[in-house]
Amino acid sequence: MANIPFMRLDRQFEAHKGQFMDAVEQVFSHGRVLQGPEVAALEERLAAFFGLGRAAAVGSGTDALVLALRALGLEPGHKVAVTSLSFVASASAIVLAGGVPVFVDPTPGHLLAREDMILDLVRSGRVDGVVAVHLYGQMAELEEIYGQARKRGLFVIEDAAQALGATRNGYAPGRFSDATCLSFDPTKVIGAQGSGGMVLSNDQKLIETVKRLRYHGHAGNRVYTEIGHNSQLATVQAALIKVKMDHEQAWRERRQQIAARYDQALNDLAFASALPVRPGNTHIRHKYVIDVPQGRDDLAAHLKAQGVGVSVHYSMPLFEQPCLRGRCEVYGDASEVKRAVNRVLSLPIYPELTDLEVDAVCRALAEFEA
Ligand SMILES: Cc1ncc(COP(=O)(O)O)c(C=O)c1O
C-alpha cells in the first residue's frame, strides 16, 4: 500500500538542510531575533518579486489582512465583500478588524468568487470594500472591480495567501488593488517553519501604517500613536523564507508537472474532473482540487484506505462557520457554495512527491468504483 501523506515538510528539510541550518545559525549568531536585517531584506525581495513598492512583514496571513484592513481605514460596521468559499481567515480577519463580511458565491467551475456579484455590491454601494481571494493558486479578475471601487472610494485587498507566484494576464497579485496580503503558513508554497505573513503595496503611507500597527502603534522614540498589535515575523523565519524563495521557480514548475500528470489521469475518469484553469491565468498549484459530483466522501475514504492523504478545501460555506454566524451577510442564494462543499477534494501536491508516488495516486483514483 502507498504511504503518501497530504503534506511532507520533512522531505523539504532533508533536501535543503544545509541551507536552512546556515540561515538559522546566521540569525542566532548576530542575535537580532526580531526586526533583524533579514526581515527588511525579505520585505525588499518580495516587493520586487510582486513588482510593488513596499512590504511589511507580520506574524501571520491573518494579521496581514487585519492590519491591511485597519490601515485602509475600515471602521466598525463597515461591510466587506468576500467569497463564501475560502479559509476562515479571509472572513474572520474582517470581523477582527471590526467589519461585517458580505459573502458572495463562487463561480461554478474554477470556484473563484463571482465577480458579477462583487461588482453589484460595489456599484450599489452596499459594501465599503472588497477582500478578493486568489483561491487554490489561481487569480481572480480584478481590473473592473478595482476600477469601480476606486471611483467610489472603496478599498480592494487581495488575499494572495494561496497565490505566491501566480499571474493573470502576465500580472502578479497587486496590480489592481490597494494592498496584497501573503501567508507563510507552512502549508503554503513558500512557508515559514511556523507562522508568518506580509502586506505589500505601492502606497508607502499604507505600509508605514502597517509597520506601526504591527508593533503597538510605535511611531519611534517610544511614542505609540495607535492601539497596535504585536505581530512580528521572527528574523529566523524571514531568513528561512528567503532560502525557500531561491527555490520558488523550481518548486512551482515541479508542482505544475505533477498537476499535468493528475490532469491526464482525470481525463480518463468519469466520476471526477480537474477544476479548470482560467484562460489568462498561470496556476501555481498550491492546491490540486478535483470536482466529484457524486460520492466525494466515498472517494476520499477509498484514497485514504489506499494510503493517499487527501483533504477538503472547504467543507462548509463560511457563513455557516459558528464563529461567523450572526456576524455576516449573504448576498444571493449561495447555491453554488452549498454544492461545492460537497464535491471538492484536494489531492496531495508538493514538489518532493516522486513520480512513482504521483503514479500511485493516479492508480488509486482509477481503481475507485463510483
Ligand atoms: C486564503 C487564505 N487567507 C488567509 C490565510 C491565513 O493565513 P495564516 O494562516 O498565515 O494566518 C490563509 C491560510 O492559512 C489562506 O489560505
Structure, described:
The chain has two domains: 237 residues, Type I PLP-dependent aspartate aminotransferase-like (Major domain) (Aspartate Aminotransferase, domain 2), CATH 3.40.640.10; 119 residues, Aspartate Aminotransferase, domain 1, CATH 3.90.1150.10. It is of the alpha/beta class and 370 residues long. The chain has an eight-stranded mixed β-sheet with strand order 1-8-7-5-4-2-3-12, with helices on both faces. A three-stranded antiparallel β-sheet has the order 9-11-13, covered by helices on one side. It has a two-stranded antiparallel sheet with strand order 6-10. Bound molecules: pyridoxal-5'-phosphate. Pyridoxal-5'-phosphate (PLP) binds next to α3 and α4.
Question: Could you state the oligomeric state of the chains shown?
Answer: single chain
Please give the domain count.
2
What coarse outline follows from CA principal-axis ratios?
globular
Task: Give the termini separation.
Answer: 21 Å
Task: Describe this protein with a few key phrases.
370 residues, alpha/beta, Aspartate Aminotransferase, domain 2, Aspartate Aminotransferase, domain 1, 2 domains, 12 helices, 13 strands, globular, binds pyridoxal-5'-phosphate
